[in-house]
Specification:
Helix 3 packs across helix 4. The protein is α+β, with helices and mostly antiparallel strands. The chain is built from 9 helices and 20 strands. Bound molecules: adenosine-5'-triphosphate and magnesium ion (MG). The site of adenosine-5'-triphosphate (ATP) has 11 residues, from helix 2.
């Protein structure tokens, strides 16, 4: 709690991006007014589609690119004129490979030696870093004699070995298969927590971002669409892009009929009127995208229990082991998905069945038209 009080009174957070703009060609901005405050020890992820500006932000933080406008502050000091090697940041970039002519140990020792650390300290820290990524047996090998996953673990160890306060990682798990990738997500997260380092992490994999982050900045087209905790992004997406990008999402388009602070009525093209939670609509007459999570849909709800109850026709039932996906035709959509856990008592549905489905107002968010 003290930390919170301190940060509230402190004029500067650990890292501050202050209205950063970036253009490579002097005409188009690929980062548009990026603002973010990061507290010490936070795990921040930049998440977004390809080309949305994530790596550009990381490159500016590292010092390999300069902002066209604005500045970045580290510990309260502007860093625009500080060269990369003076920033004291640990890096795992895809194009920032291990030194091929050095062994794993030599690769890890390098950032310590350039900091003039004593030989015995170097040995101690290299050993600890190798243990941390579970590669103690591989210290004498050259990178070429390691698997892709092992090389990436060495790169992670090298970024952390000199105990930087800030670490940047750009798609560090990109080359790994699914199992190793998931294992490494937890490993990096635990190491980051144990060491208390601040992390800025880039990925375009939403489940990776949800697993690892304290907060996630969702990027699109050089603009942060929403900066929030994983839970908030999933439960309360601020707009249609975020709702679509994070998790699965049923979308219904309609016309706002009426609107007050707490609820709105939206009419979909087949005439059904849906009661929703107004999030990103302004007035009656607006076009809205209604967003509904598939696991929040109730099959055969008690009459009167929910404001939204509609007849639906089962089009397809897919068995997925731990859950069932039922595609139904409802409210002008035949792509409407319901997820039900495969637990005792789940409804036995068949193609062609007529059922009723319902959802609460809170679970139905009226977002922008896009
Ligand atoms: N060195 C460069 N010179 C010119 N344009 C660049 C350069 N680097 C990136 N861009 C452009 O800037 C935009 C943002 O690129 P950036 O690499 O930051 O995206 P990204 O979000 O990291 O994408 P990805 O997920 O594909 O890695 C893209 O349109 C890209 O083509
Ligand atoms: Mg990138």
């Amino acid at each position: 709690m003290q930390q919170d009080e301190y940060s509230k009174d402190s004029p500067f957070p650990f890292v501050k991006f202050d209205n950063i703009q970036k253009s490579y060609d002097g005409r188009t901005l690929v980062v548009k007014g990026f603002e973010m405050d990061i507290e010490q020890g936070e795990f921040i992820t930049l998440l977004g589609p390809s080309g949305s500006g994530k790596s550009t932000v990381l490159m500016m933080m590292a010092g390999f690119e300069q902002p066209t406008h604005g500045d970045i502050f580290l510990n309260g000091n502007p860093i625009k004129t500080l060269p990369p090697h003076k920033r004291g940041i640990g890096l795992v970039f895809q194009n920032y490979a291990l030194f091929p002519h050095m062994t794993v140990e030599e690769n890890l020792a390098f950032p310590l030696q350039v900091r003039n650390m004593s030989k015995s300290d170097v040995e101690k820290k290299v050993k600890r870093a190798l243990d941390m990524v579970r590669l103690s047996e591989f210290g004498h090998r050259r990178p070429a004699h390691l698997s892709g996953g092992q090389q990436q673990r060495v790169a992670v160890a090298r970024a952390l070995v000199f105990e930087p306060e800030l670490v940047l990682m750009d798609e560090p798990l990109g080359a790994l298969d699914k199992n190793l990738r998931e294992e490494m997500q937890y490993e990096i997260k635990h190491i980051q927590e144990d060491l208390g380092v601040t992390m800025i992490y880039v990925t375009h994999d939403q489940s990776e971002a949800l697993t690892m982050s304290d907060r996630i900045a969702v990027f699109n087209d050089g603009i942060v669409q929403q900066l929030a905790t994983p839970e908030e992004l999933y439960e309360r997406p601020a707009n249609a892009f975020v709702a679509q990008f994070i998790g699965e999402n049923n979308r219904l388009k309609g016309n706002v009929l009426s609107l007050d602070d707490n609820h709105c009525k939206v009419q979909v093209p087949n005439g059904d009127i849906i009661t929703a939670n107004p999030v990103a609509v302004n007035k009656a007459g607006d076009i809205s995208t209604l967003s509904l999570r598939p696991e929040r849909i109730v099959i055969n709800p008690a009459q009167g229990g929910l404001p939204n109850i509609f007849d639906a026709k089962v089009e397809e039932v897919i068995y997925l082991g731990d859950h069932l996906r039922t595609r139904v035709k409802v409210c002008d959509s035949d792509e409407f998905i319901i997820k039900t856990p495969n637990a005792e008592g789940h409804p036995d549905l068949r193609r062609g069945d007529m059922i009723s489905i319902g959802w609460s107002q809170d679970d139905c968010r009226a977002l922008d038209a896009s």
